[in-house]
Write a structure and sequence with these properties.
The chain is of the alpha/beta class. 50% of the residues lie in helices and 14% in strands. The chain is built from twelve helices and eight strands. The chain has an eight-stranded mixed beta sheet with strand order 3-2-1-4-5-6-7-8, with helices on both faces. The longest helix has 20 residues, at 34-53. 42% of the residues are buried. The mean pLDDT is 97. The structure holds nicotinamide-adenine-dinucleotide. Residues 7-13, 30-32, 36, 88-91, 95, 99, 116-118, 139-142, 234-235, 238, 242 line the site of nicotinamide-adenine-dinucleotide (NAD). Residues 185-280 form the 3-hydroxyacyl-CoA dehydrogenase C-terminal domain. Belongs to the 3-hydroxyacyl-CoA dehydrogenase family. It holds the Pfam family 3HCDH_N. Keywords: Oxidoreductase. Pathway: Lipid metabolism; butanoate metabolism.
Amino acid sequence: MNQVTIIGSGVMGKGIAYSCAISGYKVYLNDLNEEILQHAKTAIDRLLDGSFEKGFLKEANYISAKENLHYEVDLETAAKDSQLVIEAVLEKMDLKIDIFKKLDKICGAETVLATNTSTMSPTEIGAQTSRPNKVVAMHFFNPVHKMKLIEIIRGLETSDETVQFVKEVASQLNKEAVEVNEFPGFVTSRMNCLIGNEAMNMLMEGVASAKDIDKAMKLGLNHPMGPLELADLVGLDTRLRNMEYLYETLGEKYRPCPLLVKYVKAGRLGKKSGSGFYEYT
Ligand code: NAD
């Protein structure tokens, strides 16, 4: 494989594009308009510059990564020559299906189509294409350039060849893969959303402050980040969509905390909007 397309240049798409570019792949990053892509370019350039200045990237690698990155609004131009497409748009099934149907028409028969969904069904997405055996979920973690894991989720019709292919890509990206059979929320989101929701319920009930809930989880249970600061990093709108899907598919245990719902209504979306459970200046 030499070329990959990433659809969606938000929190995750930017990180996935960065990781693919420094690993030697030619990358096409696609989003709805030039302005969004320009923001993504600024952020990715800043990340590349920082990695180079701190000595994490050699000069040749830094230069080739910049050359490898292409920002393209037209979906057909962005995707037609890639061997792998990774979709990282909002956590909405109808939107994902619409994009996969388009990709199925645009891309060559051998192209693998992956979704970065946190919770949803690659089987359901694959069934809307002519290549369900080549549809898989590649679940990256935030921030992508730091997190080692890619959870690979096999849909009902996903072939062994496709799973092997994405495992090799994961290894090329210097990541570790775990293979999971499809079930809502997989391993990580199912567990993490529950912990985060419980922390939000505790905050709402006045059990402790946000800072102390996070501190207790970090220092007492050795979590690298507290559940509330992690939810802010993920984006509270994204977390709410994850919870709604898990509630719909797995039941009552996953009912989104009313405080999360209220924060999203208020536009407090976490780090990306400047405020969530914490304030970001
Ligand atoms: P985000 O809201 O930051 O970014 C989504 C991007 O998709 C936006 O830039 C938007 O303009 C773009 N987009 C929307 N419709 C599009 C279309 N039709 N074509 C091209 N681009 C389009 O979302 P995110 O946090 O990056 O999440 C993306 C996916 O990754 C979701 O499925 C989410 O569940 C999953 N995920 C998120 C995290 C996280 O920590 N945020 C972690 C793992 C997985």
